[in-house]
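Hello Y.,

Per our agreement to keep a running log of every chain we model this quarter, I'm adding this entry. I've kept the format consistent with earlier entries: sequence first, then predicted structure.
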Amino acid sequence: MYSISSEDEPLMAEFQAAIAELNTESLPPSHRDLFQQFNYILAAKRNISKAVDRLKNSIEFFNTTNVFGTQEDEVGDSLMSGKVVIHGKDRENRPCVVMRLCRHDNSVSSEENLRFLCYMVTTLFVKLTEAQCFDAHLIIDAKDFTRHNLDLDFVKTALGILQDHFPGRIFRLHIVNANFLIRTVFRGLKMFLNILLKERIELSKSATGELAQFFDPSELLVNFEGTVELFNETGHPTGFEFRHIE
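Predicted structure for the entry above:
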């Protein structure tokens, strides 16, 4: 967790002066929030020039993809698949994103995948702002993952969006139930990861890995030996309701 300290206030002032002439109207409200604007500075390791470039990347991304304002019912099929859910928080109040690779459907169009990814990441930043956190956990569950679910374009797009077009950071990337195929895939994907993210990856053959170090069982899904039953017998999220998240 992090708060904007008095020592960081001059950096924030410098950043805001540098972006004063930029048109940020294409950005979601979560990106224009003062707290998340500071995240651009943190993601750039307090280098203002790089932070401004990262914000420009975000503006260009939303201008060219036209995914801002995506509503939940527009990506309902992907949401109902349960392939990505945002649930739980660690002991430091960081939110957690769970991605279940076996639920990915290669037949879904690349456009819907892009809208879905942006919807989920934008939703995550709303939760980060609410929790006053600058980073989140990402749990990738590779249980029952096969070549049928393999979609390298989807994975590379997701990594690219997280690394280049959004201000947030991954505190820890947990890859659990990692079989031989997924370990082979991630060895190949490492070339697309920045150095900082590479250092935050934990690859485990078990269903828990190091999760117990960060989470209470009451915050973890039963999939990871926690106590939360989030999915029904068909693998879909329970208690699902459509809602538009600003």
